[in-house]
Design goal:
- By secondary structure, the protein is an all-alpha fold.
- It has one domain.
- The protein is built from two helices and no strands.
- It starts with a helix and ends with a helix.
C-alpha cells in the first residue's frame, strides 16, 4: 500500500518537474535571445552590415560562385 502511494507521489513530482523544466528552459532561452541576438541584429542593421545577404540583384538573391578548377588536389583540400 505504501509503495503504491509512494510511486503515485513520485509520478506526480516527475510530471510537475518536467513541466517546470520546460517552462524554465523556454524562459532562459528567450532571455538569452533578447540579450544577445536582438541587439546584435539591431547594431549590424544600423551599421549597414546585414547578417544575411538579402539584397535583390537582378530580381534574385542568388549569388554565383567563382569558377575553380576541380580535380584530385581540390578534392584533397576542399576548404
Amino acid at each position: 500500500m505504501k509503495s503504491r502511494m509512494l510511486r503515485a507521489f513520485i509520478n506526480v513530482l516527475k510530471t510537475i518537474s518536467e513541466f517546470v523544466g520546460r517552462v524554465v528552459t523556454v524562459a532562459i532561452l528567450t532571455v538569452i535571445y533578447l540579450i544577445v541576438a536582438v541587439p546584435t541584429g539591431l547594431v549590424l542593421g544600423l551599421v549597414g552590415k546585414p547578417p544575411m545577404r538579402t539584397k535583390f540583384v537582378g530580381g534574385s538573391t542568388w549569388e554565383l560562385r567563382e569558377e575553380r578548377p576541380s580535380g584530385l588536389e581540390d578534392a584533397r583540400h576542399p576548404f
